[in-house]
Specification:
Layout (H helix, E strand, L loop, with lengths): L3 E11 L5 H11 L3 E7 L2 E9 H13 L6 E9 L8 E3 L20 H8 L42 H8 L20 E5 L10 H10 L4 E4 L4 E6 L3 H11 L7 E4 L2 H7 E2 L2 H8 L5 E6 L15 E5 L4 H6 L6 E6 L11 H7 L6 E5 L11 E5 L2 E6 L7 E4 L6 E3 L9 E4 L2 E4 L9 H18 L5 E5 L5 H8 L3 E5 L1 H12 L6 E11 L5 E9 L4 E7 L2 E4 L3 H4 L1 H10 L14 H12 L4 E4 L2 H13 L9 H9 L12 E3 L5 E3 L2 H12 L4 H27 L3 E5 L6 H13 L3 E4 L10 H14 L10
Parallel strand pairs: 2-5, 7-14, 9-12, 11-15, 18-21, 21-22, 23-30, 25-29, 30-31
Antiparallel strand pairs: 1-3, 1-4, 2-3, 6-14, 7-8, 8-13, 9-13, 10-11, 11-12, 15-16, 17-20, 18-19, 19-20, 23-24, 24-25, 26-27, 28-29
Helix pairs in contact: 13-22, 15-16, 15-17, 17-18, 17-20, 19-20, 20-21
This protein binds zinc ion (3 copies).
The site of one zinc ion (ZN) has 8 residues, from helix 13 and strand 23.
Length: 762
């Protein structure tokens, strides 16, 4: 018999509100250990005493089978002197300890709770707010920390005696589940018409189902805001939704009843199946099945659907065998932030929705659904929202920094106690509503994290709302160049220190020479960089309008080559073209751009004859969808070196190749493939030249253009084949959603190296 021992164990990470203490309690009991467990600050502290072999078993379970929602950053152990405990207990944490850094994302309903709502004899039968320690709302309902019921929007619902009993019992899976409730004591759904008047009915959820089957559009209040919902098998409902929402083409996300139903409309790999089913329940971009039975109107001109599975009890209650697919799109009017306050929703969505399915609990912070995709063996995040946000990634820096992100796909990041906390996706900061929400989220996060950073990192662009906001905070500011932030973020995500090559392809970002960059080859580290190459500059006319009207972008490119544009856009007004040409000639409202995003827009506009777009990067996305991946051909490209040693990837020969094929009426799928292949091969060729000069072989790929999966996959493949170590964003979006994290990484390194110059952002 081995001798008794006693240990003090401290677990750091996201370990509170995830069922850690009940798990420890049960495991300690199972191994007949004595002692106690309690929350201590943001960690969990355990003292256990017992036979050494039982202790080993306990530690094995702790390390290998912790509760699925816990994220353990580290476990530290020290011997403990006291060994004679009577039993094992869960001790209450002292009320006045400030709990920091433990904001949990919202989690999908678990299997046990689903069983409860499906069981006619269970008191939670068909109850839409059923939850437990393993599932349910968290971040979206928290007002303040510590995470106690009174500090959530559940505070105004007092638990009935049955719920209280569960809450108090360590063996119960609802032990200390803060939002614990039941039909007797919790929130309720009700159905309103578009004038805000209650619809008299026995069951609002059953009634909603009937209305969906009739083809109606319902605004449904969910976890992080309202969704606009209609039957995805009803073409008329979808087209009505498109018209009312003023969203002609942008794909709608679909929610499907079961994984088998998804397989009817999409092909999916094992990893895709796992990803779509996990308890974060993101929207996953999946390839359409060739015999999909759903309308083309859901995701016109692209080869993918954004699909998710139900994630709240309500969602499960909405589906049945005759209602298997729902369009579930963010409840907003084109471009505006998602509605999450009842009054706003009823005002703004009354022209869109026929009915509102609402409930009487407040949403504390707006959160959109997350969007991810699977590339080979990796899950890549495109939009960090529900289930993922706030995201916490370790960043080994003593500095306290708030970084403000960019102007599109805004997000903010708090570097606090060596953890980078990245906010949810906050949309486009073009609208007043979005800017207000952005400020509110900064306020809330700083309170929840108890962070008061002295340093503000922001983009170089003087006109970004976030840049102007940085100035108003009257703190030490550090301006981080846009593409450097993308590179630093990619390095930090992979824990990489040192020098590397950054290949950053995106739409728009202010360069240090005040031109617009976006097809960039950088050399450097997290704190500094040198621009060693880029896509050749073109003079673009018309600022933002060149993005929304890609024909202008195409015209700007062709203008430099004395090529006519009229034949590609036969429907376009000739006078308008003359005006743009004149503006180019006289350099009115013109700027220099090396943006890869714009080059894709130009090629896409010409190839698809797409003069206007109605959502971001629409033409480029449609061009990617056309790629015939069996074609290995490419266009001729040239790379030149200018006097100062900068490598320039020229666009003219590539564009000529495309025009030639267009004139010869070659199939679009082939042109698209050849163009993509050219960019891939040219990128690898540039990287090889840079390696020769700088002797670096770690490459970091980032920027919004890498949302293009074909491009990313083939550039990664090409670089690896040429002997590079390749890194790209996975956890953090490669688009501007990841910019705040990158700014924090860059600013932290700049401070660490003492490279900070006061006032350098002015
Ligand atoms: Zn549950
Ligand atoms: Zn109750
Ligand atoms: Zn960017």
């Amino acid at each position: 018999m081995s001798k008794a021992a006693s240990l003090r164990i401290q677990i750091h990470g996201i370990v509170q509100g995830v069922g850690m203490r009940p798990f420890i309690y049960k495991t300690a009991k199972a191994f007949q250990l004595t002692g106690f467990v309690k929350n201590k600050g943001s960690s969990v502290e355990i003292v256990v005493s017992g036979e050494q072999c039982a202790m080993d078993g306990f530690l094995y379970e702790l390390k290998n089978n912790p509760p699925s929602n816990a994220i353990i950053h580290n476990i530290s152990m020290t011997p403990h002197t006291k060994v004679d405990f009577q039993d094992f207990r869960i001790l209450h944490s002292s009320k006045n300890t400030q709990i920091e850094g433990c904001i949990l994302p919202d989690l999908a309903v678990c299997e046990d709770c689903l069983e409860d709502i499906r069981n006619q004899r269970n008191r939670r039968f068909e109850y839409a707010f059923t939850n437990c320690t393993n599932c349910g709302s968290r971040y979206s309902i928290i007002k303040e920390l510590p995470y106690d019921r009174g500090n959530t929007s559940m505070g105004c619902f007092s638990m009935c005696s049955k719920c209280s009993d569960e809450y108090e019992k360590p063996e119960d899976r609802r032990f200390h589940a803060q939002p614990n409730c039941c039909p007797a004591c919790g929130p309720k759904y009700s159905l309103l018409n578009c004038h805000g008047l209650q619809v008299n009915c026995e069951s609002p959820i059953e009634e909603t189902k009937q209305r969906l089957k009739e083809g109606k559009i319902i605004a449904i209040k969910g976890i992080g805001g309202y969704h606009l919902v209609c039957n995805a098998e009803d073409e008329t409902a979808i087209s009505t939704l498109r018209i009312r929402k003023k969203r002609p083409c942008k794909p709608f996300a679909i929610m499907a009843y079961k994984i088998e139903d998804i397989k009817q409309i999409c092909t999916l790999s094992n990893l895709e199946e796992e990803t779509i089913s996990n308890n974060k329940r993101p929207i996953v971009l999946l390839n359409k099945n060739s015999n999909t039975l759903l309308s083309d109107m859901i995701a016109p001109n692209i080869h993918q659907y954004g699909v998710m599975l139900p994630y709240t009890p309500l969602h499960y209650l909405l589906f049945e065998d005759s209602l298997k697919y729902l369009v579930m799109t963010s409840g907003n009017i084109s471009g505006m932030p998602i509605c999450y306050k009842d009054k706003d929703a009823q005002e703004r969505l009354s022209q869109v929705a026929d009915f509102f399915l609402v409930y009487n609990r407040e949403i504390m912070t707006p959160i959109d659904d997350s969007v991810v995709k699977v590339l080979n063996e990796d899950v890549l995040i495109s939009r960090c929202g529900r289930g993922y946000a706030p995201m916490s990634l370790p960043m080994d820096s003593p500095y306290e920094i708030l970084s403000l992100g960019g102007n599109q796909k805004a997000s903010v990041c708090f570097l606090h106690h060596k953890i980078a906390h990245i906010s949810q996706y906050l949309g486009e900061l073009h609208f007043l509503e979005a800017c207000n929400e952005y400020r509110a989220v900064i306020d809330r996060l700083s309170r929840l994290l108890n962070a008061n950073p002295e340093i503000i990192a922001h983009d170089l662009h003087p006109n970004y709302f976030s840049t102007q906001f940085a100035k108003k905070l009257e703190k030490k500011t550090i301006a981080v160049q846009h593409h450097h932030a993308h590179m630093a973020g990619c390095m930090a995500e992979h824990g990489f220190q040192g020098d590397g090559i950054g290949i950053i392809f995106d739409g728009t970002g202010m360069g240090i020479d005040e031109t617009i960059w976006g097809g960039e080859f950088l050399v450097g580290n997290r704190s500094k960089f040198k621009r060693v190459g880029h896509l050749e500059y073109v003079t673009l006319q018309g600022a933002d309008s060149a993005i929304e009207e890609p024909w202008k972008c195409a015209l700007s490119y062709l203008y430099t080559m004395n090529e006519d544009i009229e034949i590609y856009f036969p429907g376009l007004d000739g006078l308008q073209m003359q005006i743009v040409k004149k503006a180019l000639l006289n350099k009115v409202n013109c700027y220099q751009s090396s943006s890869m995003g714009r080059f894709f827009d130009c090629i896409a506009a010409l190839t698809l004859h797409r003069s206007h777009i109605s959502y971001e990067a629409q033409a480029a996305i449609e061009l990617e969808a056309m790629v015939d991946s069996t074609i290995n051909d490419e266009y001729y490209f040239s790379i030149v070196e200018v006097e100062d040693g900068t490598i320039i990837l020229e666009y003219q020969s590539i564009l000529r190749g495309v025009l030639e094929d267009l004139k010869n009426q070659q199939p679009i799928s082939g042109i698209s493939a050849k163009f993509h292949n050219t960019i891939c091969n040219a990128t690898v060729a540039c990287a090889c030249r840079i390696r020769e000069k700088f002797h670096l072989d770690n490459v970091f790929l980032s920027g919004g253009v890498f949302e293009n999966a074909y491009l990313l996959k083939n550039i990664v493949f090409g670089l690896k084949r040429s002997g590079f170590h390749v890194f790209f964003n996975r956890k953090v979006p490669s688009n501007d959603g990841g910019l705040s994290f990158g700014q924090a990484a860059a600013a932290a390194s700049i401070l660490e190296e003492g490279a900070y110059v006061p006032g350098n952002s002015d």
